[in-house]
Design goal:
Layout: H1 2-15, E1 38-45, E2 64-71, E3 77-82, E4 94-100, E5 106-113, E6 122-130, E7 136-143, E8 146-155, E9 161-167, E10 173-181, E11 187-194, E12 199-207, E13 213-220, E14 225-230, H2 231-234, E15 256-258, E16 264-270, E17 276-281, E18 287-294, E19 297-306, E20 312-319, E21 328-336, E22 342-348, E23 354-364
Antiparallel strand pairs: 1-2, 1-23, 2-3, 3-4, 4-5, 5-6, 6-7, 7-8, 8-9, 9-10, 10-11, 11-12, 12-13, 13-14, 15-16, 16-17, 17-18, 18-19, 19-20, 20-21, 21-22, 22-23
Length: 365
Amino acid sequence: MKYIIITFSLLILISCENTINRIPRIKEMNERDYGGKVKRIVKYDCDKYWTDEHPLKINKTSCKIYSIMEFNTDEIKTKEMQWYYLDYPNDPGYIEIIKVNESGLIIEIAAKQKKIRNMESCETKTNYSYNQSGFETEMVLYINGKFCTRWETIFDEFNCKIKKIIYDENNEIENYYINEFDNRNRKISSSKFSNKNVLEKKWVKEYDDSDEWVIRYTYDSDGKLLDKDDKRESYKTNKINSLYTSRLPDERFKDIEHYTNGKVRTWHYKNSANNDIYQTYDENGRIIERKIYRNDEWIDTFTWKYREDGSIIEESESTSRVVGKSYYKKSTYYRVDFNGNWIEKYIIDSEGNVTELAIREIEYY
């Protein structure tokens, strides 16, 4: 009897060996770009206004409300209204109402669009359901009161999305996806099936030491390789060159200079169009300049300036690609509040004309 108990315990230990260290996924909270607990944001559209004495002066009496957004104490947007013809406080051309449950999860989004020029009137309602961990298990969409589609998601005990089912307007299965995950909860494969359970396509991912995939293979229903997407290569081709990303060049790529603190200072690479890209960063890792050349001929220059707290206060674009002009520059200036959120934005062309003015009125809790 003692031998049987020991054997049975050993079998349990062996069967759990691959999953014993696996931890269920936890839902991450969404983060917004602006700081503070924002209660309300009012956006204004303003007439062009410019003088020789003060090119950034703004005639605020010409500004009219075109958007209002409201947020709850959990910083979730609960209402948005837009006035396309700037006829506030008349009925807005677009209104969106968001309902949130006690856990802070969005359970309904109802939107109403008025008929405006080429835009037809439309009403949509989307309902959401979640599991106990806060992951979305169902999405149901209605358009003009009629059922449109439903997405059902099934999770395993680790909150990994192992199956997704898509239903058509008759609430019948249109297709579905089966996903596989490794013991680090990383999706390693995804297979698409028809409503007749026939495999249509499959994707397989490979990972490095991080939790981001580096290679993705795409296969057809017969297992034939259709495409190989190597993120390490695309990493060099201008796909991550966004001002609003914190990702910087990988050490594996050449033509990179660093500051003494280890952060990237300059980076030279070629994009998918075979253009030469030269990027410069400050010591805090923020991009401050990007120059683009084609066949040794200058095309574009982008620059950015920041406050000490990291808030952007100026960005500009200089280009040789405007038809009829050998050089064109557009600069955007921001005035920010105590939370680093912009409250006034000015866009000025190379002749010093204000082409766009915008004001944001932010109310905090």
